Protein backbone atom coordinates (compact mmCIF):
# COMPACT_ATOMS: atom_id res chain seq x y z
CA UNK A 1 0.00 0.00 0.00
CA UNK A 2 2.86 2.41 0.80
CA UNK A 3 4.57 1.71 -2.48
CA UNK A 4 3.39 4.81 -4.37
CA UNK A 5 4.90 6.98 -1.67
CA UNK A 6 8.26 5.32 -2.08
CA UNK A 7 8.06 5.53 -5.83
CA UNK A 8 7.51 9.25 -5.70
CA UNK A 9 11.07 10.31 -4.81
CA UNK A 10 12.38 8.11 -7.62
CA UNK A 11 10.04 9.85 -10.03
CA UNK A 12 11.21 13.24 -8.83
CA UNK A 13 14.83 12.24 -9.41
CA UNK A 14 13.97 11.04 -12.91
CA UNK A 15 12.11 14.23 -13.71
CA UNK A 16 14.83 16.48 -12.28
CA UNK A 17 18.13 14.63 -12.62
CA UNK A 18 20.96 16.00 -10.51
CA UNK A 19 23.00 18.63 -12.35
CA UNK A 20 25.52 17.31 -14.83
CA UNK A 21 29.09 17.58 -13.60
CA UNK A 22 30.51 20.91 -14.70
CA UNK A 23 33.54 20.61 -16.99
CA UNK A 24 36.74 21.76 -15.38
CA UNK A 25 36.99 25.02 -17.27
CA UNK A 26 36.98 28.41 -15.58
CA UNK A 27 33.57 29.89 -14.95
CA UNK A 28 31.92 31.13 -18.14
CA UNK A 29 32.44 34.78 -18.81
CA UNK A 30 29.22 36.47 -17.96
CA UNK A 31 28.06 39.94 -17.07
CA UNK A 32 30.70 41.88 -15.28
CA UNK A 33 32.81 38.95 -14.22
CA UNK A 34 36.25 40.23 -13.35
CA UNK A 35 39.26 38.95 -15.24
CA UNK A 36 40.44 35.95 -13.19
CA UNK A 37 43.91 36.02 -14.70
CA UNK A 38 46.87 37.98 -13.38
CA UNK A 39 49.15 39.02 -16.22
CA UNK A 40 52.77 37.97 -16.13
CA UNK A 41 55.55 39.05 -18.48
CA UNK A 42 55.41 35.56 -19.97
CA UNK A 43 51.65 35.39 -20.47
CA UNK A 44 51.59 38.84 -22.02
CA UNK A 45 54.47 37.97 -24.34
CA UNK A 46 52.41 34.98 -25.45
CA UNK A 47 49.30 37.13 -25.92
CA UNK A 48 51.33 39.57 -28.00
CA UNK A 49 52.58 36.74 -30.17
CA UNK A 50 49.07 35.31 -30.65
CA UNK A 51 47.77 38.79 -31.43
CA UNK A 52 50.37 39.02 -34.18
CA UNK A 53 49.22 35.71 -35.64
CA UNK A 54 45.47 35.89 -35.16
CA UNK A 55 44.42 39.50 -34.83
CA UNK A 56 46.89 41.92 -36.42
CA UNK A 57 45.77 41.24 -39.99
CA UNK A 58 42.46 42.90 -39.18
CA UNK A 59 43.20 45.06 -36.15
CA UNK A 60 46.63 46.25 -37.26
CA UNK A 61 49.90 45.46 -35.48
CA UNK A 62 49.36 48.37 -33.09
CA UNK A 63 45.60 47.81 -32.74
CA UNK A 64 44.64 50.96 -34.61
CA UNK A 65 42.24 49.01 -36.86
CA UNK A 66 44.39 49.40 -39.96
CA UNK A 67 45.18 45.79 -40.70
CA UNK A 68 45.71 44.28 -44.13
CA UNK A 69 42.07 43.20 -44.30
CA UNK A 70 39.63 46.10 -44.51
CA UNK A 71 36.13 45.51 -43.17
CA UNK A 72 32.78 47.10 -42.54
CA UNK A 73 32.10 47.96 -39.84
CA UNK A 74 35.79 48.41 -39.25
CA UNK A 75 37.18 47.33 -35.90
CA UNK A 76 37.55 50.14 -33.43
CA UNK A 77 40.85 51.88 -32.88
CA UNK A 78 42.11 49.98 -29.87
CA UNK A 79 44.90 52.51 -29.33
CA UNK A 80 42.20 55.04 -28.42
CA UNK A 81 41.45 54.58 -24.69
CA UNK A 82 37.81 55.54 -25.24
CA UNK A 83 37.17 52.64 -27.66
CA UNK A 84 36.78 49.92 -25.05
CA UNK A 85 35.79 51.99 -22.06
CA UNK A 86 32.16 50.84 -22.14
CA UNK A 87 33.06 47.18 -22.54
CA UNK A 88 33.72 44.94 -19.56
CA UNK A 89 36.47 42.35 -19.52
CA UNK A 90 33.75 39.71 -19.82
CA UNK A 91 32.41 41.46 -22.95
CA UNK A 92 35.85 41.43 -24.52
CA UNK A 93 36.40 37.82 -23.52
CA UNK A 94 33.14 36.85 -25.23
CA UNK A 95 34.00 38.77 -28.41
CA UNK A 96 37.48 37.29 -28.66
CA UNK A 97 36.19 33.83 -27.89
CA UNK A 98 33.13 33.70 -30.15
CA UNK A 99 33.65 36.61 -32.54
CA UNK A 100 31.52 39.60 -33.48
CA UNK A 101 30.14 40.65 -36.86
CA UNK A 102 32.79 39.75 -39.40
CA UNK A 103 35.32 38.83 -36.75
CA UNK A 104 35.76 35.08 -36.21
CA UNK A 105 36.13 33.84 -32.66
CA UNK A 106 39.45 32.50 -31.46
CA UNK A 107 37.94 30.13 -28.89
CA UNK A 108 39.06 27.07 -30.84
CA UNK A 109 42.69 28.08 -30.73
CA UNK A 110 43.04 29.82 -27.40
CA UNK A 111 42.28 28.36 -23.99
CA UNK A 112 40.23 30.44 -21.60
CA UNK A 113 43.34 31.56 -19.71
CA UNK A 114 44.90 32.68 -22.98
CA UNK A 115 41.70 34.52 -23.87
CA UNK A 116 41.71 36.39 -20.56
CA UNK A 117 45.36 37.28 -21.15
CA UNK A 118 44.39 38.51 -24.60
CA UNK A 119 41.78 40.78 -22.98
CA UNK A 120 44.55 42.28 -20.85
CA UNK A 121 46.81 42.61 -23.87
CA UNK A 122 44.10 44.26 -25.97
CA UNK A 123 43.48 46.81 -23.21
CA UNK A 124 47.21 47.49 -23.03
CA UNK A 125 47.16 48.62 -26.67
CA UNK A 126 45.40 51.83 -25.62
CA UNK A 127 47.69 54.80 -25.45
CA UNK A 128 48.01 56.03 -21.90
C1 LIG B 1 38.91 38.77 -39.82
C2 LIG B 1 39.28 39.98 -39.15
C3 LIG B 1 39.42 39.96 -37.65
C4 LIG B 1 40.21 39.14 -36.89
C5 LIG B 1 41.11 38.01 -37.36
C6 LIG B 1 40.04 39.58 -35.53
N1 LIG B 1 39.15 40.60 -35.45
FE1 LIG B 1 38.53 41.55 -33.77
N2 LIG B 1 37.16 42.58 -34.82
C7 LIG B 1 37.05 42.57 -36.21
C8 LIG B 1 35.93 43.40 -36.59
C9 LIG B 1 35.47 43.68 -38.02
C10 LIG B 1 35.37 43.90 -35.39
C11 LIG B 1 34.15 44.80 -35.26
C12 LIG B 1 32.94 43.90 -35.29
C13 LIG B 1 31.63 44.64 -35.28
O1 LIG B 1 31.51 45.63 -34.58
O2 LIG B 1 30.73 44.19 -36.00
C14 LIG B 1 36.18 43.36 -34.30
C15 LIG B 1 35.96 43.63 -32.96
C16 LIG B 1 36.85 43.34 -31.94
C17 LIG B 1 36.80 43.83 -30.59
C18 LIG B 1 35.72 44.72 -29.99
C19 LIG B 1 36.02 46.17 -30.29
C20 LIG B 1 35.44 46.56 -31.60
O3 LIG B 1 36.19 46.98 -32.49
O4 LIG B 1 34.22 46.44 -31.78
C21 LIG B 1 37.88 43.33 -29.92
C22 LIG B 1 38.29 43.57 -28.50
C23 LIG B 1 38.59 42.50 -30.86
N3 LIG B 1 37.95 42.52 -32.08
C24 LIG B 1 39.74 41.79 -30.57
C25 LIG B 1 40.30 40.85 -31.43
C26 LIG B 1 41.37 39.96 -31.04
C27 LIG B 1 42.06 39.96 -29.68
C28 LIG B 1 41.61 39.15 -32.12
C29 LIG B 1 42.61 38.02 -32.23
C30 LIG B 1 42.46 36.95 -31.27
C31 LIG B 1 40.72 39.57 -33.18
N4 LIG B 1 39.95 40.59 -32.72
C32 LIG B 1 40.70 39.02 -34.45
C33 LIG B 1 37.84 41.87 -37.09
C34 LIG B 1 38.74 40.87 -36.74
From TrEMBL:
Using the record's annotation, list all stretches that form the Cytochrome c domain: 42-126
- Pfam families found in the cross-reference section: Cytochrome_CBB3
According to the UniProt entry, its GO molecular function terms are:
electron transfer activity; heme binding; metal ion binding
Q: Where is this region: Disordered?
A: 22-41, 64-85
Arranged from A to Z, the UniProt key words for this protein are: Heme, Iron, Metal-binding, Signal
UniProt superkingdom = Bacteria
In the UniProt record, the signal sequence range is: 1-15
UniProt keyword Calcium, yes or no: no
PANTHER family from the UniProt entry: BLL4482 PROTEIN (PTHR35008:SF4), BLL4482 PROTEIN-RELATED (PTHR35008)
Protein name as catalogued: C-type cytochrome
Q: What is the lineage of its organism?
A: Bacteria, Pseudomonadati, Acidobacteriota, Terriglobia, Terriglobales
Amino acid sequence: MLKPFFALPALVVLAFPPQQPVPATPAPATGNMANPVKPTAESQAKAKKMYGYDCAMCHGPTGDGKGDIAMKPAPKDLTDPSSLKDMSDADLFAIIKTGKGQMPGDGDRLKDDDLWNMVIYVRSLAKK
